Amino acid sequence: MRPLPNGARDFVGYGRTPPDPKWPDGARLAVVFVLNVEEGAEPSIADGDAATETGLTDAIAGEVAAGRRDFVAETLFEYGSRVGFWRLHDLFIDLGIPLTINACAQALERNPEIAAAIRDGELDLCCHGGRFVRHYRMDEVEERAAIARAVTSLKRTVGRAPLGWQSRYSSSETTRALLAEHGGFLYDSDSYADDLPYWVEVSGAPHLVVPHSFTHNDNRLATAKLATAAEFTDHLASAFRVLYAEGARHPRMMTVSLHGRISGQPSRFEGIQRFLDFALGHEGVWFAGRSDVARHWIANHPPEVGA
Fold first, then answer.
1. Sign of the torsion angle spanned by Cα atoms 148, 151, 155, 157
2. CA-to-CA distance for 144 and 165, rounded, in angstroms?
3. Residue 84 and residue 75 in contact, taking contact as beta carbons nearer than 8 Å
4. Do β-strands 205-209 and 198-202 pair in parallel, antiparallel, or remain unpaired?
5. Other beta carbons less than 10 A from residue 177's beta carbon
6. Could you tell me the mean pLDDT of each successive run of 10 residues in the chain, 307 residues long?
7. How far apart are CA 61 and CA 73, in angstroms?
8. How many CB atoms lie within 10 A of CB 6?
9. CA–centroid distance for 218 within its chain
10. Angstrom distance (rounded) from CA 138 to CA 150
11. How far apart are alpha carbons 91 and 33 in whole angstroms?
């Protein structure tokens, strides 16, 4: 598949004949778990922002007037890093399942213990920006500086550069070009367009996209699209069953996105435990970090440059 220019809308993709990913050991499904670490990097009046961030929390948006601190939202974010992160982290470590940490750099600056867990556990690291803010609202100069600051910060706290990038919600029109300009990234995940990685062309060179998921995501719980841990388990299991069945003919990839302040809450955590038990009961599944998927794709499906 020849890379299309960055920003070009592609409604065809791989079509009815997706490539064989050639996942390790002939796996029919690759499963990636992403744990977002945003707590401490979110917009906050205490950090000079205009309002307290309430997104993806159990706080009531608009309950506290703009310009005043919402201590419910603030402390729910704090729960995510104080308790929720560790509950999820320990589960995955105990089960030996790879975990990709999608980290905002400022969050790790404020929580050296989490940074040390990522460093010492050699966990896969993806940059989720310097702060939990929207890059599509930045101009090019501001965004270039924000990317550089984020990478520098992660090198300082974790001891290595992130191999991937994912923006909050949506990238800007220039994000990919700025990532390519900065260098050092294997991929970005600013896409929801496919069940497999794919190549685009950025600044005349191929650039890998490893899609994320807003659907297999515990934001469904925080936004009340799903109500309970059991519903989330069923939601994820339904996706797994479909992709696993298709994988007998066309192997697929499934990404599950989690947050400490959401799935790290006791009432929701059991849903993750149950889904992991379900997924681990199947043969032919490759549990992988997102960088592992990127490296595999680069090695086995290089871009058809000049085709």
1. positive
2. 13
3. no
4. antiparallel
5. 18
6. 78 94 98 97 92 88 89 95 98 98 97 98 97 92 96 98 96 94 96 97 95 95 88 96 97 98 96 98 98 98 75
7. 9
8. 17
9. 12
10. 15
11. 12
